[in-house]
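Annotators were shown the component list below and the corresponding predicted structure, then asked to write short factual statements about the assembly.
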Amino acid sequence: MKHLLRQTFRSGKFLVGFVIFMTILLTVLIYPLFVKDPPLGIISRGTFLAPGIYVNVYDSMNSSPRYTLILEGAASRRVAGKLGDDDRQAMQEWLVAKGVPEDSIDIADTAGLIALWESNFDPSLRLPGMTNADRNYYIRLTASLEGLLATEDAVVAAANPETGALEEIGVITQTDYVNVGEVPNSRLFVLGTDNFGRDVLTELVSATGVSLIIGFVAGIVATTIGLILGLVSGYIGGLVDDIIVFITNLFTVIPTFVLLILISFSIGQEQRGAFTIAVVIGVTSWVWTTRAVRAQVVSLRNRDHVNLSKLSGHSVAYILAMDILPYIASYVVMALILQISSAILAEAGLSILGLGPRTTEVPTLGLMMRWGLIYQAHVLNYWWAIFPVILVIALITFSLNLMNTGLDQVFNPALRE
Amino acid sequence: MKDNTVILSGRGVTKVFGFGANKTVAVDHVDFTFRKGEIISIVGESGSGKTTLAKMLLGLVSPTEGEIYFDGELRDIRTHKKKREYWKNIQAIFQDPFSSYNIFRKVDAVLLDCIRMRGGGNLPYDEKLEMMKRACSFVNLKFEELTNKYPFELSGGQQQRLMIARIFLLSPKILLADEPTSMIDACSRATILDMLMGLRNDIGMTPIFITHDIGLAYYVSDTVYIMEHGRFVESGTADQVILNPKEAYTRRLLSDVPKLHEEWDLSTV
Ligand SMILES: Nc1ncnc2c1ncn2[C@@H]1O[C@H](COP(=O)(O)OP(=O)(O)OP(=O)(O)O)[C@@H](O)[C@H]1O
Ligand SMILES: [Mg+2]
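Structure shown to annotators:
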């Protein structure tokens, strides 16, 4: 036993798979200890906030200490942040379309460009080929140019609660800085927010946990059914064997996923909890385990050690448990690993079709993909709402399959290097 | 030692494996009568159906055709309980000791099974220990060195002797020994045979040796059955069959053992 364990961890493939899987598992277990937000809590008003650190503006203006830093190029970066190259290009296009000679426009000269724009732009003018969206964009752009080149300080004012008149409470210069760590309210969105305004990372960790549980439950269900049917069918033989083989063959020719879709559909949205889905996946995927176990048992049942056990007066149950099961345990473990990874994929497939667990309780990897797809995260380039989910699914199945082939190497001496 | 009660007999016993193109008639309508205390050998070349016949006698394989009689009655092993009773009377040593043990169970578990089979399951452990030690010393094994070992950690000869220790504990009426000496050198072969012969004398067991070695059959047995392609082609006392063979097949088997008298020192029997 100890020897087998050592062999297992000496297999490079197994080790890599194990490390990846354990990293994922530990993240799922440890993350909630630090981030206690509900995974489906809606945090942001807007949807699909990009990943980054969000700093409370009010707090950074009012309470946190302010520092003065003299940084080179700060002003030009400020301008560039508001008036990007794309914007300059668009302005040039508009101006040219209006009839301003192209060589009189220098888009690198911010002050000149703005002056030219202010003297020419007319929001009511409709140039040929300009859509409504384009016009709104130009209007927005014009508004944002307001005070772009200002060098004066900004004055912060608040309404006096008695008189209602605005009173100056502070001045912000362009060289004022706050230390993000000192602002009482800031929030890191490592993976931004999703279409509902939920923190994608928190949701993803929770979804990974739920998906792993679904995979595990489905894997256990499938392996248990497959193991029992395979043992009974292979060892007892005769009519029982014929019936089980017939049923197994029947299930082999029906595509499992179609069956899964039909069952999920007939259960109905309200009844479909994550656990139900896991059981349904398990109940539809025992076929290969049954076949593999049966084949193994058939080759074992006439071995002399089984005969010796019979001659020692042991019961069928004892022989199955002690003389057959230990010999096929490695295959069963490998089948279980494969079942887990394919159950996670099956849940993802079902959820993308809208037949997965109902959406109100827990996130799953499949549901996150579904939301990402429905709200077009992939088309609108909100990569953070869908790509990490795909990556996690890929990593889980990759690591499980890697462990599986690693185990194959350990259990099958012919594959050892 | 020998009396004339028939302990095991069979009529038209046949085993057919597979069907159609894969059909193999492993044992083909054999008749036999084994008497109590008699030493029997079944001799035949590889694939002649010896092991299959033995498994039918043991009730591990059911015959396709024919009847087997045990203790004068038609053998009935249709339920698990009846099988268990039957197996108290008939035991076996299998051809390949390496594959005869469950590799996940330790040596003492194998012996404890035998004590339980003989109805000693509820004995105090000390008594069981004593029985196991006695069985081991009978076959020249040191129980203390074996208890915590797995069968695959023993040598082929030790495994074979452990198998005999099993038989010692079980003391069945019939022992089917399928090539009991195939795994061992000539010297320990004689020891093994001596042990089996000792057991026969102690507990009145009827041994049935299954072998392809006609010299061995001559050395140990009273009655010899020669098996070819699933049939008994010749049978009779060892002297009849081996010293005056009627069948060409028997003569061919004999010709593989050139120096019959020299190789087996008959005086040690
Ligand atoms: N379970 C089985 N299924 C199909 N055919 C079998 C089976 N067991 C034995 N046979 C066939 O029956 C024939 C007799 O086999 P058996 O094992 O009885 O031979 P044997 O005399 O014991 O040979 P050996 O001396 O090599 O042990 C062989 O042709 C073998 O291929
Ligand atoms: Mg054989």
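Statements collected:
1. Residues 2-39+197-415 of chain A form a domain with the MetI-like fold fold (CATH 1.10.3720.10).
2. The first strand of chain A starts at residue 52 and ends at 55.
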